[in-house]
UniProtKB/TrEMBL annotation:
Organism of provenance: Enhygromyxa salina
Residue ranges occupied by any GST C-terminal domain in the UniProt entry: 165-289
UniProt keyword Signal present: no
Listed name of the protein: Glutathionyl-hydroquinone reductase YqjG
Site label Lowers pKa of active site Cys, positions: 246, 289
Gene Ontology CC terms: cytoplasm
Residues the record marks as active site: 56 (nucleophile), 188 (proton donor/acceptor)
Keyword Oxidoreductase: yes
Pfam families assigned to the protein according to its UniProt record, in alphabetical order: GST_C_2, GST_N_2
InterPro entries with a match to the protein in the record: Glutathione-S-Trfase_C-like, Glutathione-S-Trfase_C_sf, Glutathione_S-Trfase, Glutathione_S-Trfase_N, GST_Omega-like_C, GST_Omega/GSH, Thioredoxin-like_sf
Amino acid sequence: MGQLVDGKWTTQWYEPDPDGRFVRSEAGFRSWVRAAGEGSFSPADGRYHLYVAWACPWAHRTMIMRALKGLEHAIDVSVVAPFMGDQGWRFNAEVEGATVDKALGGEYLRDVYLAADPRCSGRVTVPVLWDTQQRTIVNNESREIVRMFDHEFGGVARRDVDLAPPALRDEVERLIDFIYEPINNGVYRAGFATKQGAYDEAVTALFEALDHVEGLLGQQRWLAGERMTEVDIFLFTTLIRFDLVYHTHFKCNRKRIVDYPNLWGFVREIYQLPGIAKTCNFDHIRKHYYQSHETINPHRIVAIGPQLDLDAAHGRERLGGVAARAMIFGE
Ligand SMILES: N[C@@H](CCC(=O)N[C@@H](CS)C(=O)NCC(=O)O)C(=O)O
């Protein structure tokens, strides 16, 4: 684990605030691909390249949106190896499920950042959307990459589905914000806390939010109501990792997701959609978390984890609403 400072790699762990709280830094590349042709990044088949880690919930969001929109043919993907050591994310095609850097051929993910900006400073994170034409990073913030795939690649995408439609847009934004701090980032805030008070604060807010969402998903099929939207993907990528790693490794162990009938059914409905199971690499998820965070797990032992029956009937039809399979795949 490390970061770039003025183009130089430094090996340093996350710096907590004085109260031991984990502080996540802002993504640095924030340009947009625009369908309307404003600006210099326009959508095109084969032009953009996506860098991901199968382990990472933020990268996972973009892989799910790519699959649901039918963008696999248009946006190729390079996958880093699960272990993130002192040198940061690394490409190693000898590890099953990982690839070389197909766009640039470098050894480390930081080489992609340095190709975009030789004097780059900041954390070297996945996901990264790379433009093969201008040879630069367009964006490295998952929320924005998801939105671009959803709205800006219409001419290229094989499936005509909108997961943040105008009538629901404000509600989707509100819900994305609502789940971000206590849930998506909350598991990290619990896991990376270096003082008891910081951990207590994070883990309490996390389970309060999960309890709330459990109640909501007992009344309606999706977070924004009748139909699946982007925010359901954002919740899913945290929940699918929860019982395997966050529960044990990040000490989020008041309950498991399987103990929440509505959350667990919700996870299964999304997991069972065409193309989603193959975006869930449980081997990379387990190895990445348990092996990479030496301060939390110094001997890097990978915990066995529970056996999850993700293919069991999800039973979400009883809530009415729109089945995602019908909405997206017309089945
Ligand atoms: N805000 C970013 C966060 C991305 C992020 O933190 N990714 C993690 C992997 S789960 C990473 O690459 N961390 C490397 C580091 O912090 O050095 C997003 O949502 O895209």
